[in-house]
Amino acid sequence: MSTALDQPQRTTAAASLRGINKSYKHFRLNNIDLEIEPGTVNGLIGPNGAGKTTIMRIMMGLVMPDAGTVSVLGHPISSREASAKQEIGYFSDDMRLYKSESLAFHMQFVRSLFPSWDEDYAQQLLTRFGLSAGQKVKGLSHGQRVKAQLLLIFARRPRLLILDEPTNGLDPVAKREVLSELMQIVHDDTRTILYSSHNTQDVEQISDTITFIDRGQVIASKNRDDFLEGWRRFKLLAPQGWQVPAIDGLRTESTFGNLRVMTLDRYQSDMEDRLQSSGATLEASEAMTLEEIFVAAVSRGREENR
Amino acid sequence: MNAHAIQILFLKDLFLSRWPMFGYFVGGLLSAMVTCLPGEMAGFIGFIMMVTVTIAAGIHLIGVLLLAESVDMTRSFVMSLPVSLLDYSIAKISVVLIAFLIPWLGMLGCLTVLTFVVPDAKQGALAFLVPVFLFMLVGFCLQLVTAVVTESVGWTIVVVVLGNVLLNVFLKTLREHPVISKLGNITSIWSAKARTRKVRPSSRRWCSHNTETDSVR
């Protein structure tokens, strides 16, 4: 995924959002531009209330934006919402099944709306997820409920999966089962996944591209490897009066006595030498985890907006 | 508009509302039977039961099939499927209306049949009960439209309360209506001649036709 401003407009995008604005009483999505390439796994990371769910709901036509256009799998959502949804599998944590009915009822209901329903795959998922078709939804645990909903989505073989925090609240075993199934789906190059979470480890594990969102704004959007390779943390012992040399991409800087900790988002291999030659002693040059990168990017973004 | 999706949504909701629908249908039939029992008190109790069943069915079905979808968060699930808001609304309005009409028609049909089958039934009461049933149907339609448009429990309750207040006004107006009050006398019995005649379009003719009611028991 990338911001639309970075790349030329492509009609083959799995999903495209341009100039999306949406205002609520205490929250505003501000000029969101996103383009999702087909056959990729896209992670959407943001703190709670950042706007991830609103973006996904707008992509599904469940929320109408105040401004901007949305196109999903070639269908303009404003006019062909139902056609688009024929090829989308959408999961949201605030989505529930009919609690008085069984999983079999839901399977039959969804099957009747999707000619693409794969019954053999549905039966395999029932076994893999340890679910019983005859069990009433009200008797399912949270993990079983999530897996039941994912089964109903996966078995219809959608071209685009929009998953809003699917691993939220799952125990480690259930989370592994869900992620493992997603990894299998990822192997199919024709299918695109948009996956949101505030758990960076899950996103890092499966995503090709990652977008950070905070307070209704996209603050960074890149290939996962570009994030991990581009960000670096330096720990330096600096003499009295030492000045930070001009370095591109310096994002945060902290001082603890004579120890300086700096993070950069445009790391180059000669940077260690340049810092050493400026008079400081390089104590450590560390790669950062996606979570650390996310926190640094959000902190910097909030400082800039202050 | 996707007719196939509307049909699937309609059948799904009809299935989900099968037990309340059955309950109100049976309750409606029992109420109609009580109304046709001999004695003024039975007629009064039966009438109150029928009004109660009709009002309860309306509120319950709108609540279960429409408003609860937002509260229970099942609406997000349905709307994630290939249906538009128009498909969803058409299916919902149709199914709630049908689910209400089944007990409503059952009650009215049972009442009409029993009126002419049970020897001691107060046949003249039909002239009073049919307008009451039609009034409650219109009231239900207004509640349904309010629920669909506002998706608000609060506004729907306001319309329900308003409908019930107006029902009382309507009942009073009916009771005081010179023709209806005469025909609606629960002790009136229609003559065999009147029963075999076709109802004519003109109300004057209909009224004069019903002046052939037999004497008071």
Account of the protein in words:
The complex is a heterodimer of chains A (306) and B (217). Chain A is α/β, with parallel strands linked by helices and 306 residues long. Chain A has helices spanning 52-59, 77-85, 103-113, 119-128, 142-154, 172-186, 200-206, 224-230, 271-277, 290-305, and strands at residues 15-23, 28-36, 41-45, 67-72, 75-76, 88-92, 160-164, 192-197, 209-214, 217-223, 232-237, 250-256, 259-264, 281-287. In chain A, the strands form three sheets. In chain A, strands 6-7-8-3-9-10 form a six-stranded mixed sheet, sandwiched between helices. In chain A, strands 2-1-4-5 form a four-stranded antiparallel sheet. In chain A, α4 (119-128) runs antiparallel to α5. The model of chain A is unreliable at 4-10 (pLDDT under 50). Chain B has 217 residues and is mainly α. Chain B has one domain. Chain B is built from ten helices and no strands. Chain B has helices spanning 3-16, 18-35, 40-71, 74-79, 85-117, 126-150, 153-176, 178-183, 192-196, 203-210. The chains are: A alpha/beta (306), B mainly alpha (217).
Q: What are the main properties of this structure?
A:
heterodimer; A: 306 residues; alpha/beta; Rossmann fold; 2 domains; six-stranded mixed beta sheet; four-stranded antiparallel beta sheet; 10 helices; elongated; B: 217 residues; mainly alpha; 79% helix; 0% strand; disordered C terminus
